[in-house]
Design a protein that fits this description.
2 copies of one chain form a homodimer. The first copy, chain A, has 165 residues and is mainly alpha-helical. Helix content of chain A is 67%, strand content 6%. Chain A has a single domain, classed as Arc Repressor Mutant, subunit A (Orthogonal Bundle), CATH 1.10.10. Chain A is elongated, with a radius of gyration of 20 Å. Chain A binds a DNA duplex (30 and 30 nucleotides) through helix 4.
Amino acid sequence: MTEPAHFWYADDPSVAEILEAVRRFRRADEDMRRRISAGMRMNVTDMSALQYVIAVEQRGGHAHPGDIAGHLGISTASTTKLLDRLSASGHLTRTTHPTDRRSVVVAATPHAHTELRERLGRMHEAMAAIARAVPPQARGDVSAFLDAMSDHLDSERGVAPLTSA
Amino acid sequence: MTEPAHFWYADDPSVAEILEAVRRFRRADEDMRRRISAGMRMNVTDMSALQYVIAVEQRGGHAHPGDIAGHLGISTASTTKLLDRLSASGHLTRTTHPTDRRSVVVAATPHAHTELRERLGRMHEAMAAIARAVPPQARGDVSAFLDAMSDHLDSERGVAPLTSA
DNA sequence: GCTAGTAGGTAGCCAGGCTAGTATCCAGGC
DNA sequence: GCCTGGATACTAGCCTGGCTACCTACTAGC
């Protein structure tokens, strides 16, 4: 009863295989996030926020509550609570912006950096290894496929044009 | 501030591209689910459940509350409430199993079938078209890559072995 | 130096999870 | 035939983590 659905518009078995692989990947990713978050005693959103802050810092930038809200798709009010939780747990710190005192700069603590690296570093390496295992001549096709999928999902509003006709 | 992070373990640009494409795809998928669910005035979990029930039916099977709970990774108690919501909204019906009267059979209403087809049919077709656009000789590599990723994510516990050493 | 706009926080509400406990039912041992 | 154990779903009540609405502090433009 947990077997995959085969109701794709798949004429060709190789196409059906790809679509099924996509479906499986989405589930695996979701489950992994749940497990990792649970392992760090936090919810999935908080985990995402933490990753985001660290990613911004890795690029030499500063994360602000408003950015985090936008990135996560939640309100700034909810983000305030989120930051309260992550501050209380010692993963993030809030400091006021040096010049604009309306603004707040969110920074990950060394502890958060360490913990995330310990838990995700190995996984990222493994993912890179899997990417390297793709034959060089097919790599462009793989990225192009994923990019095309992303473009499509981004453009999808979820309503068939028929409905409003 | 919403630019991608480039802290992958990427020696090779083509590898980095793949990993970045994966990251982007995950976000696009998540956002799409939120939009579609919101468009149908339901939460993401309920939407998933509905898709699951319909998928099971497409394969000629019957969905049971317990299966749904397992598929979604939530308790059977929460599933009861979920089924209450989806019954109230006219998307699902509950009937007792003909022979085993402990069991409940969940079925999607024609309305749910129609609505989902309207909203997702076009998207699935477009996804199939994107898969067909992958050069035939690279299709195996694409599915293999995604499968390997899924395998890895499924196996990942999120704790580095160093931690316990 | 007002006033409009912006960033973030506070208060209070509600949806949607959870655990614990309950009712019903099937299957197996006697 | 009739208990008993395990399966299946539901109910009651709690808690987390969202939301809206409103408020404060601050900057910038005139």
